[in-house]
Structure formats: C-alpha cells, structure tokens
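2024-03-11 09:14:02 INFO receiving multi-entity request
2024-03-11 09:14:02 INFO entity count = two
2024-03-11 09:14:03 INFO echoing inputs for audit
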Amino acid sequence: MIRLEGVTKRYPNGHQGLVDVSMTIHRGEFVFLVGPSGAGKSTLIRLLYGEERPTTGEVVIDQFRLNALNWRQLPRLRRQLGIVFQDVKLLPTRTVFQNVAFAMEVVGASRKDIHKRVPQVLELVGLARRRDHYPEELSGGEQQRLGIARALVNHPSYVLADEPTGNLDPETAAEIMKLFQEINRRGATVVMATHARELVNQMQKRVVVIERGRIVRDDAKGVYAYESK
Amino acid sequence: MSLNSIGYWIREAGRSLWRNSWMALASISTVTIALFVLAVFVVVSVNVNHVTGLLENEVEIRVFIKPHVDRRREFLLMREAENWPGVRKIQFFTKQEAAEALKEEFPDQRTLFQLLQKSNPLFDGYDVYARTPTAIPPLARRFAREPIVHNVVYQGTVVRRLSRLATVLKWAGWVVEALLGLATLLIIINTIRLAVFARRREIQVMRLVGATSWFIRWPFILEGLTIGFIGALVADAAVGLGYHWVVQQAAISLPFWPMAAFRVVLVHTTVFTLAGGLVVGALASVIALHRFLRV
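2024-03-11 09:21:47 INFO inference complete, emitting structure
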C-alpha cells in the first residue's frame, strides 16, 4: 500500500512541487496521474521512489516510511519498485539481454537465475528475438519495452512510470499501455504519470488529476479531464 | 556479499581500468615514483640503522693480540686488566669467533666467507667496555704498551653521529613523502572521478534498481587499490634490482663497508611500498566517491 498524508514539497528556489497532497493506493491498483506539465506529477513519482523527500507530510510504501529513509533502507525500497522513464535510460554499450541482466547482476543475482529470468521478461515484453541487439538498433517502442523489461525483472510489487509513452506515436503508445495492463493483471500495482488522453479514457482506470501541486479530482473510473487554461 | 557480486566488482574494475588506460597509466606512474622515493629512503635508513646497530653493539675498545701468543698469556693479561681503573667488563674472543662476527656484519660477502674458511687471518683479542667515555683513550694507550698486544681500535663519536644522521634522514624522508603522497592522492582521485563519470549511466541505473551504495563503490575502490598495488610492485622491483646491484658493486669496491642484507632490505621496502600504495589507492577512491555517491 502507498499512502501520502498532507504531503507538501517546496523546492529551495521557492517553486511549489506539491501542496498538501493526501491519497492512498492499494495493492493491485492501476492509477493514472494526469494534469498539465509542471503540475507536480513527476514530483509525486520522484517522492515515491525516494529520489526526493517531502518538505512536510508523510509518504509510506508498505513498511517503508520515506521521510526517514536512511541509506541502508533506500536500496531495499527500490528493489520493491520497478521504475520506467520517458527517456528510457538504457546502457548503450550493452545488448538488450545485458541491459536487463544488469539490473539483476547489481542486486546480487546468480548467473543461473539471470539466465532463467531474463528470457522470461524479454518474452513478456515481446523482445525475445531482439536479445542480442544494441539499444540504438531498436525502435522507440522497443526501447521502451526494454525499459519495462528491466523494471520488471526483479519482480517489483510496484511499477512507477513517468510519461512512459511521451516519445511514442499513438499506435506504439497503445501497445505499451496494453503491456502495463498485462503487468497490472499479473499483480503489480501500477502508478503512471501521463499525458495520453485517449489511452487514459479507454482504460477506465482510477484517474487522479493534479493541478498546481494539488489533487483536484480522484475518480475510480475516471477520464482524462482538467481545466486547461 | 555473494561470489556473484565479487566477480562483478572485479570485472567492472578491470573494464574501467582498460577503458581509461592512459589515465590509469599516469596514476600508476605517479604512484610508482612516489613509492620509489619512499623505498629509497627505506633502503638508506635500513642501512644506517644496520651500521648504527653494529657500532652500538661494538665494544668501546677492541684489543687484538699478536698471532702465536699462547692462550695462557692472553688470559693472564685479561685477569690483570680486569682490575685496571675504568674497566667495566672484558670479554675474550678467539679468531674463530671474530670470523663469525664478520659473517654477520657482511651478510652478502660470499667470497669473504670462503676466504675465512680456508685460512683465518684474524686475531684473538678482548672486547673492553669502559666505565666512562673519558676512560677510553688512556685505557687504549695502556693496552697498546703491553708486549703481546698487536693493536688497539676504538670508536665512539661515530655512533653518535650516525644516529643523528638517521634522525635527520627520517624527518627529511617523512616531509618528502608527505608531499609526494599528496600529489599521488590527487592524481588517483582524478582518475577515479573520471572512471565514475564514464560510468554515470550505469551508476544511475544501479541506484534505481536498488544496488547498495557499497555495491556501487567496490569496483572503484578495487580500481584504486589496483593502481596502488601495481605502482608498489614496480617501485619495489626497481629498488630491489637497484639495491641488488649496489650490494654486488660494494662487495667488489668497498668490501669492508657493512651493507644491510639484500633480503632484509627487500622485506622492508616491500612492506612499506605495498602499505603505502594500497593505503593511498583506497583513500583516493573513498575521497573521490564521497562526493559522487551520496545516497
């Protein structure tokens, strides 16, 4: 369970990232965070994976209280999370297989486990036949699938995605969205910040609208709608 | 930490050294130079200590008896001299014992031992210890007047001068080493920083998927240690070969100058260069990482 309680994030330059945000996300949910650029969606995601700390308020994920998270606990939290970015952050000198394997290697997985698990995830995201290619040889959609494979390989309970379809054409974006739906169906909680209006509307999932750092709507089967000025 | 992780760390450290091989080479060279100077100081001070130690144990007056004087007359003079004013202790030695002592003093002089084993040209004699330094010259003169005495040797100020020299050398050595150490430290820090910079994407991904800080640090620390280790080996080898050569040359042209044994010197230089190289290498990595890898 993810719980935010009166969370405010103020940056040193005076910019308000979030203002008094409270919400709860249960295990197995699929939640869209929508809103204009700079409204605070990314800030919220960054708070969830411990890259930033709230100025006031509480952020709790399962047993982890993120306000007081020390350097020992942060890696433990991160192993529960799979994080997907708009710029996928792939390693250009490693192949598809090695990019995914890297995520297992650095948390101390054995060779045997790596060689068993990586093909499974590549199969899931549809990159099994591309395993020996380098990231620059992949299309944008394939690169994002690779990013998702890397996020999933360590069996995270939560998948956090920040504009994962931002750079993709609508058709590819729809496929990526289907992939997230499949991931959610298999049990992971998904929290996604996005601008993809039509996809959000099709999916009929929970939609949280953020404007100027505040939650202005939170609908269980919501649509992508906010006052755009 | 598992075996998988250790394998990963070693691979990564090697890969990084290879990728930045020019910078690594530059660091290794500076480490080598700094450690070479350190090793030279170690060699000199081991030798100074060797000589000082020999002279300190050395008797204050050494009296040599003429050859072919019989044992009875040698003992007679010794009994008598024991009661002379200023004498604290007298020890008799045979020429065989003198030969043994020489062997200890010049451990690398093999030809000398062979010579001593064939025919021993040394003398019997006494080691005479005086009560006060001022009693030494008159005692020496008194022994010299005895008919069975071949000659008398004494030294005193040499020991004091040598130990003063050793102190000065030690301090000068530390100052030079501190400066060289600092230069080395800065260069290795720079190398590790470059290595961290070259791997910033990997580091970012590692942190995102939950690698621990120590897991991320180890390859860089290994890299620093490797630079220090290789530098130490090269410096030690250079000094070792150099000293071996000097000892051989000295055996020919300065046969009676007591050089410290090659093995003893090599043990000292190895310990100092390895410790110096590893400490500087590890320290530099830790400092370089401190700024980049705060979680």
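2024-03-11 09:21:48 INFO post-check: Chain B has ten helices and four strands.
2024-03-11 09:21:48 INFO post-check: Residues 157-198 of chain B form the longest helix (42 residues).
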